[in-house]
């Protein structure tokens, strides 16, 4: 408990303020009102925020593997998919389990962890680039397997409908204004995701300072030196990899529940994994706040800024142009690609790095030059 | 049955040749700079777009005269190879070169970024208002590449095995390119410098080798091979698509890793092996399992022989 108290003191007011603001936002969506007044377009920022929370969970999962432990993994989407499809199998009407969201929320991370353990145990001894390729390959294999095992996964259609979480009547009614159940479900997902995200951030911050968290950093900085200090690289790496995979599985469970479907397996492709990596790099690899910032920026760009710019572009061109360049969403890869290249050149530690990683990066550059 | 096996052998061989050519670009860069040039597959893709644009501009199609076809084809090959080489060189100069001393993650991530940018360029290119691009209305749709070689069976119309002029072109031209590359790496001064740099860049520099120039040459040659491969691939498959670099790039990279990354004969071996496995798995397991089979093999090989088939045991530079 004392640890928690000093921790709260140390993080200061900003995260608490953010949490409070996010907690009241669904009841007073000021940003929505403002943007709607300005553009005449309903953007449903609260809906986007749920997606951002879930994507942040996934980003934190990858951050544990790549950022903290330095294991370059390019297939996080595979574990995300495992979580989503586990949830699908456990909850949809097609199967006899139908254990609902709460049960799935406990089991999906277990399956994610199992996948991480089975892949990690034989492959984590590979050095950086090779590990990247193996995880990339695993991601593709998982996608193809999910796509082709139509008897189990319903192939390209995905498993649906994934039911909304069961809630006590009192909670459900108090969340639904004027008996509108769909808003109630949205708000329930909003608060559930927010609570789980906040809890995850707290746990990961505590982990960072714990013995095993310090072991991650030691391994990332210098494997040889770390193993001389009595850290077992194989076990610590496997712990980070399995932990990240479990968290990705949890994110997958939320994703499927929020979408009410597992989505088609092709959603979980290499590009998806890379997008998650992108938001870590933009935010700051190895930094919790950076991962959250990156997830917010990325989804914010896709779902809020990009539609707005497309609208402006269309108005500027006068009417509905169907040309490929007239829709701003078609520019997203140029925007992200340029962001990655520019970041690596000017600010490799990310926009909001942890001080430790920033030091490491600049140290290496000075050493090398 | 025997016919099927022979036919798949032939298909595997031709596919494998294309993989091998692209894999060479990955493996050469990795051998010297130790980073995965993720953008290489997209250089391959854009080079194919150059060839298609040229076909459109010259009005080449299956009805053109034999002389026009031969000339046009040669022009396509030269233009795409030059384009691929120069684009690769440009990317290295602008993006990777300033990162030579940065941590290893930096060039890798930049390469992913460049790959994104090039794919997006390919998407826009596909929206060009040109007949070969279907008028540009459907930018993201696959584009038909004109069938410039006669679709006759060289083994006679009654033969159960199909061997078309394009198969011969793919295999023959690839062999010529690989032999040329082998000649350059093995017998020229530049090749010697490349091998030395791959072994130990700082020692090579001490011996008076201009490492920057060697790296530039590597990107130029790798890109040109990719550009060349893109033309023969398009002739063979008859479709061009802005995401073709992504899929083929991953396969080619897998080939390079399977053969032992950084190892030039290994890339050719890996490419052929992958092409054969692909052909047989498509025939006997089903095309929908293709990526799973190929990447599954990749994982198994890396777990049991991390350095690839021909690679020496991995040495971690401490």
- Helical content of chain A stands at over 70%
Q: Report the end-to-end length of chain A measured between terminal Cα atoms.
A: 46 Å
What fold name goes in the CATH topology slot of chain B? ABC transporter involved in vitamin B12 uptake, BtuC
Percentage of residues in helical conformation of chain B: 55-70%
Largest sheet of chain B: 2 strands, antiparallel
The average pLDDT score of chain B comes to 89
- Quaternary structure of the protein: heterodimer
Please outline the major beta sheet of chain A. Answer: none
CATH second-level architecture of chain B = Orthogonal Bundle
Task: Provide the residue-averaged pLDDT of chain A.
Answer: 87
Q: What is the correct CATH architecture of chain A?
A: Orthogonal Bundle
CATH class of chain B, please?
Mainly Alpha
User: What form of chain B results from the Cα inertia axes?
Assistant: globular
The secondary-structure element order of chain B is HHHHEHHHHEHHH
Beta-strand portion of chain B reads under 5%
Low-confidence stretches of chain B: 313-318
Number of helices of chain A: 17
Number of β-strand runs of chain A: 0
Q: What fold name goes in the CATH topology slot of chain A?
A: ABC transporter involved in vitamin B12 uptake, BtuC
User: What pattern of helices and strands is seen along the backbone of chain A?
Assistant: HHHHHHHHHHHHHHHHH
Distance from first to last alpha carbon of chain B:
53 Å
Describe the structure.
The complex is a heterodimer of chains A (369) and B (318). Chain A contains 17 helices and no strands. Chain A has 369 residues and is mostly helical. Chain A has a single domain, classed as Orthogonal Bundle (ABC transporter involved in vitamin B12 uptake, BtuC), CATH 1.10.3470. Chain A is globular and about 65 Å long. With 318 residues, chain B is mainly α. Chain B has one domain (2-135, 162-304): ABC transporter involved in vitamin B12 uptake, BtuC. Helix content of chain B is 70%, strand content 1%. Chain B contains eleven helices and two strands, in the order H-H-H-H-E-H-H-H-H-E-H-H-H. Chain B has helices at 2-33, 40-58, 66-96, 105-125, 165-187, 189-199, 201-206, 211-237, 244-259, 264-284, 290-304; strands at residues 143-144, 239-240. The longest helix of chain B is centred in the N-terminal third of the chain and has 32 residues, at 2-33. Chain B starts with a helix and ends in a 14-residue tail after the last helix. The relative contact order of chain B is 0.20.
């Amino acid at each position: 408990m004392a640890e928690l108290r000093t921790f709260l003191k140390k993080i200061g007011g900003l995260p608490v303020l953010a949490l409070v603001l996010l907690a009241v936002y669904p009841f007073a969506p000021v940003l929505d009102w403002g943007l709607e007044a300005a553009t005449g377009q309903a953007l449903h920022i609260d809906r986007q925020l749920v997606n951002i929370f879930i994507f942040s969970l996934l980003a934190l999962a990858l951050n544990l593997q790549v950022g903290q432990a330095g294991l370059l993994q390019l297939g996080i989407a595979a574990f995300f998919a495992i979580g989503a499809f586990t949830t699908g199998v456990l909850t949809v009407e097609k199967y006899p389990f139908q254990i609902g969201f709460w049960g799935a929320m406990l089991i999906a991370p277990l399956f994610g962890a199992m996948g991480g353990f089975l892949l990690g145990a034989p492959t984590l001894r590979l050095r950086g680039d090779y590990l990247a390729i193996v995880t990339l390959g695993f991601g593709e294999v998982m996608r193809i397997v999910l796509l082709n095992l139509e008897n189990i996964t319903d192939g390209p259609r995905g498993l649906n409908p994934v039911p909304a979480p069961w809630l006590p009547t009192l909670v459900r009614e108090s969340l639904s204004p004027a008996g509108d159940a769909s808003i109630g479900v949205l708000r329930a997902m909003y608060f559930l995701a927010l609570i789980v995200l906040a809890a995850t951030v707290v746990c990961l911050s505590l982990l960072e300072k714990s013995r095993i968290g310090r072991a991650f950093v030691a391994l990332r900085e210098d494997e040889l030196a770390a193993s001389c200090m009595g850290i077992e690289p194989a076990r610590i790496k496997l712990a980070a990899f399995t932990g990240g995979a479990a968290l990705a599985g949890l994110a997958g469970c939320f994703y499927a529940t929020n979408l009410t479907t597992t989505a088609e397996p092709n959603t979980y492709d290499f590009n998806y994994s890379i997008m998650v990596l992108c938001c870590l790099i933009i935010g700051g690899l190895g930094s919790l706040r950076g991962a959250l910032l990156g997830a917010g920026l990325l989804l914010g760009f896709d779902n809020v800024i990009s539609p707005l710019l497309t609208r402006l572009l269309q108005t500027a061109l006068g009417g509905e142009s169907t040309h490929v360049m007239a829709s701003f969403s078609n520019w997203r890869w140029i925007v992200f690609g340029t962001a990655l290249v520019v970041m690596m050149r000017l600010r490799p530690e990310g926009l909001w790095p942890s001080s430790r990683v920033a030091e490491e990066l600049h140290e290496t550059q000075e050493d090398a030059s | 049955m025997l016919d099927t096996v022979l036919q798949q052998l032939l298909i595997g061989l031709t596919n494998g040749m294309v993989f091998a050519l692209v894999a060479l670009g990955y493996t050469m860069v990795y051998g010297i700079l130790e980073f995965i040039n993720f953008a290489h597959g997209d250089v391959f893709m854009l080079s194919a777009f150059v060839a298609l644009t040229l076909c459109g501009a010259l009005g080449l199609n299956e009805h053109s005269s034999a002389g026009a076809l031969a000339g046009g084809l040669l022009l396509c090959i030269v233009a795409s190879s030059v384009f691929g080489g120069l684009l690769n060189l440009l990317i290295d100069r602008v993006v990777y070169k300033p990162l030579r001393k940065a941590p290893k993650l930096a060039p890798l991530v930049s390469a992913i970024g460049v790959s994104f940018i090039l794919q997006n360029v390919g998407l826009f290119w596909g929206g060009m208002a040109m007949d070969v691009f279907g008028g540009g209305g459907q930018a993201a749709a696959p584009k038909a590449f004109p069938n410039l070689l006669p679709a006759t069976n060289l083994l006679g119309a009654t033969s159960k095995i199909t061997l078309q002029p394009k198969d011969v072109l793919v295999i023959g031209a690839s062999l010529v390119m690989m032999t040329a590359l082998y000649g350059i790496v093995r017998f020229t001064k530049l090749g010697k410098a490349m091998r030395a740099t791959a072994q130990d860049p700082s020692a090579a520099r001490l011996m008076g080798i201009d490492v920057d120039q060697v790296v530039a040459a590597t990107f130029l040659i790798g890109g040109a091979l990719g550009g060349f491969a893109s033309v023969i691939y398009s002739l063979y498959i008859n479709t061009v698509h802005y995401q073709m670099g992504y899929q083929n790039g991953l396969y080619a990279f897998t080939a390079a890793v399977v053969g032992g990354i950084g190892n030039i004969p290994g890339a050719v071996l890996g490419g052929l092996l992958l092409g054969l496995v692909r052909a047989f798995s498509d025939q006997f397991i089903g095309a929908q399992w293709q990526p799973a089979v190929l990447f599954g093999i990749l994982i198994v090989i890396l777990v049991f022989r991390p350095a690839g088939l021909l690679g020496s045991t991995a040495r971690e530079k401490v």
